[in-house]
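Below is how a single chain appears once it has passed through the pipeline. First comes the sequence as given, then the structure the pipeline wrote out for it. We keep one example in the README because the format questions we get most often are answered faster by looking than by reading.
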Amino acid sequence: MKIFVFLLSLLLFDTLFASNNEWEELILQKMLHSISKSKNIAVYSKDKSLMHEFKNSDSIRSVASCQNCDFILAKDDVNSSCHKPTIVFSYYEYLNTPTAVGVFFWQKGRPTIRFSAKRLKHFDLQVRGELSKFVSIND
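Resulting structure:
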């Protein structure tokens, strides 16, 4: 019994103090799954650290070209030649990128998520599940 309590407390401690990268991976997976129409999602990003986050995922795979992806993840430079739904990581890019359907960024140590209803509709996408409360009709 003592071993079980110890293992449970170790698991809870690890969960409470997970790194931002682990939280970022979980949030991005949740965002992609909530707007994707398929269970197997192909993502493209120029940022190799983002692509590394999905190496252990069974349902999200990275592709080498934006032409073959379902979604683009853009931290810095948004590829305007590919007209694919994009998730960006700054609010400025979200407002100024016509293909940005969603944004994820950290603000005051908290994750901030937002989806654009108008842009989701343009790509014939919708947010399902618990993330639907983050859809903004004003963007």
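The radius of gyration is 16 Å.

See the next section for the split statistics.
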